[in-house]
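<derive_structure_tokens>
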Amino acid sequence: MSSLPVLGVFTAGTILSLALFSFNEERPVSTPTATINSEAGDSKFSSAGFDLTPWTKSQIEERCQDLTEEQIRITQASGTERPFCGTLLDNKKDGIYCCVVCRLPLFESTSKFTSGTGWPSFYRALAEGHIVEIEDKSHGMVRTEIRCGRCGAHLGHVFPDGPPPTGRRYCLNSEALEFYEEGDDLPEGAKPDAEIGYFAGGCFWGVEHGFALLPGVLDVVSGYQQGTVDRPEYKAVCAGTTGHAESVKVVFDPDIIDFGTLCKYFMYLHDPTQLNRQGPDRGTQYRSGIYTVGEKQLNTARQVLSEVQASEDFSGRQIVTELEAAKTFWAAEDYHQDYIAKTGRACHVNIPGALKAIGRNPTDLSSKGH
């Protein structure tokens, strides 16, 4: 973290003017590279479904009218609050931490830890592209500054001395953040611009690969869900001691592909009549499930399952796909992500059959389709 600058008698307006000049002219924010372009337009979506289109100077100026002098000093002039004084340092509530300027979600409470440094610390950002890292050579040292990936607000610094699994310590100013407790109504900017669906259909390598092929799917992440243990690891999940299913988080643009289509595609992508197994893989972690977010998704999934069960394709075969409200999704270890794309291995999924079920052809597949 940088040392505290001497502000003298500068007003909030003076600080903002100087900061915006410095921000826009001397240290432009790098465009985040870890974003996914939606095929519906030019907006840049993060893997969590948030629009990362850079804010303009006028947007920043307008928002800063509602901020305190201290918030402006920190976010627009790379200031630092005094250690052990931040209001969010000892916050232990469940929720998300957002940029105080544009309200882009930056960190989840699940990645917060006590570092003993005097500033709120996290070991993982919420999603790639939400944080931009910039080399900082101020104060006679070389550090890595972190800024908001949408509005460029200064947040703090990141250091390579954090806990597993990342080994990183994101050191934040409380005044650069807004906290929203789980269950709170979120303001505009803190709500995703894309939607998310969760599906479990056996080994997540193949399910991830199958969904990643579809136009309108912005990102797919393999992980663990519906279990009873926090931060599960692959070995424990495979042992069947955590209660988790291998699932995938599908981030999609509803203007291109809707949740109902994803559900139907999924029902044909795997065999939903196999209980606690898919092909040679056996165990409750390989169960079939759709884990919904909200009443609308629940009703849609229920209708799709009913229609598929009544179809000739499943005549005489009972679908055993569980339909539950989504619990915490824990991303799997890095080596599981994009596994088929990295290795070229085949898996149990039936992509041709799933495409046919939703009226698509192999020629319709996305160019990003691993």
